[in-house]
Structure formats: C-alpha cells, structure tokens
C-alpha cells in the first residue's frame, strides 16, 4: 500500500436530502493519496449519491467537501474535474459513433488544452496501450464488445491523467477474465501514474482483491471502514450486506 497518509479528499458531515428522504447522512469520508478505496453497500445505500456529491454533480444539503486541500462545497463538476478529480459513470460514457481514438482524445480536452496535436496523439496512444485498446483505436466505439466499451469509458477519464480517478461500477457486465485484466490495469494506473482510485463496485470479490481500504454505506450512513480483512469480519457489515458469500 503506497499512500503516505496525506488526504486528497475529505467530507465532513456531508448530507443530501430529497424532501423527507435522506440519501446520505453525516458522511465523514477521507481518501488518501496512493490508495485504491472501495465504496460498497447494498442497493439504496447511498453510493451513487455520494459519488455525485464528491464530483459536484449533486450539491450537499449540509456538510463540506474538501478536494486537494480546498473547500469545494457546491462547486460545479467541471471546476472540480479541472482540479484533477475525474469520474466515470455507471452507464458507459462515450460517443458510440466515434472511433475509439477520437473518444480517448476527448479525455485530453481540458487537461491538455495548451498541448499540440503530437503530444495529444502520444497521450492517446499511451492510454490505449495501458487499457489494451491499441487494436481498437480505429474501430467505431459502439460496435465493440461490451467489455471493450467499458474500457473505452475508463480510458477517456484516465486520458486526463487525474490525481483522483473515481470509477462508478466499471466492472459491470465483464466476465471473470475481463475483470482480472481490468483490476491489473487499476493497479498499474495507481503504481505507475501515482493516481489514487475511488472504486464503487458490486463485484465484492474484485473489491476485496484490489482495494486497500473499504467504506461500507448502509441506509445513507457510514456503517464501517477498514481493510478488506477487517470488513470481512465486521458483524454489522455481514448482517447488512456481505452475508456468507465470501467465506465460500
């Protein structure tokens, strides 16, 4: 585990209400430099709302959001992303009618605004190589298999070379081989590019395998935080979510 204790993102009392419904309640979350942090919980636990809160797509009802040492509470998502926090979405976000090459190029739009075409082309090629997309660069993204499409979405986000990469259920629909390869990519991104990763994912085997720490949400509240080993043994987590599936 490579993080050095510095905190890239911190929420304090972060809360989001929708009328009488409290989607996220008094969340105190920290993401440390160099780690892969998993955010898990059953359906309706508040994961998506939390993701939208920290990326600026939803404004909090109460509490504060601090990103890279700055109070970003209420900031627009474009302003937060330009700081170096980039996210993906549950449903693949890419241009189906465009080539993979041009999709990945979109990811450099803000982070390489002053760069020339040669430098951008190099970034696209490097990103494609890391994600295993080099053979597909001149293919139309919408015609590719689902697993490749998921990688295209990740490539668009990673092309910005973010400090904090937030991945929203990136493994959905992937087979076991594809999941294993994608987890290796996450580790490479973290290790070689000093990129911290927040992973929201339903695939518990994958989360337990790749994450340094895990935060568990339940009914919009933080139920537990710890290493995968600690989370596996936490009786509250077992009762709320994990059951005995990971003892098999």
UniProtKB/TrEMBL annotation:
Gene Ontology CC: one annotated term: plasma membrane
Highest rank taxon of the organism: Bacteria
Keywords for the protein's UniProt record, in alphabetical order: ATP-binding, Cell inner membrane, Cell membrane, Membrane, Nucleotide-binding, Transport
A single MF term (Gene Ontology): ATP binding
Signal peptide residues on this chain, from the entry's feature table: none
Occurrences of domain ABC transporter (ranges): 9-244
Pfam families: ABC_tran, BCA_ABC_TP_C
Keyword Membrane assigned: yes
Full protein name: Branched chain amino acid ABC transporter ATPase
Annotated source species: Caballeronia temeraria
């Amino acid at each position: 585990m490579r993080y050095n204790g510095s905190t890239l993102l911190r929420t304090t009392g972060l809360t989001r209400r929708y009328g009488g419904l409290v989607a996220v309640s008094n969340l105190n979350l920290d993401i440390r430099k160099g780690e892969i942090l998993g955010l898990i919980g059953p359906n309706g636990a508040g994961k998506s709302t939390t993701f939208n809160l920290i990326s600026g797509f939803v404004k909090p009802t109460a509490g504060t959001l601090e990103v890279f040492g700055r109070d970003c509470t209420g900031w627009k998502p474009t302003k937060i992303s330009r700081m170096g926090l980039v996210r993906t979405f549950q449903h693949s976000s890419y241009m189906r009618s465009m080539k993979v090459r041009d999709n990945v190029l979109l990811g450099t739009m803000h982070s390489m605004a002053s760069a020339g075409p040669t430098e951008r082309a190099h970034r696209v090629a490097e990103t494609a190589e890391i994600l295993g997309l080099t053979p597909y660069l001149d293919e139309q993204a919408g015609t590719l298999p689902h697993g490749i499409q998921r990688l295209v979405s990740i490539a668009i986000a990673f092309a910005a070379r973010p400090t904090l990469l937030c991945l929203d259920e990136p493994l959905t629909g992937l087979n076991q081989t594809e999941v294993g390869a994608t987890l290796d990519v996450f580790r490479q991104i973290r290790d070689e590019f000093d990129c911290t990763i927040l992973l929201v994912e339903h695939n518990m085997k994958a989360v337990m395998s790749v994450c340094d720490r895990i935060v568990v949400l339940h009914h919009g509240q933080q139920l537990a935080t710890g290493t995968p080993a600690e989370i596996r043994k936490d009786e509250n987590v077992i009762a709320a979510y994990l059951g005995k599936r990971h003892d098999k």
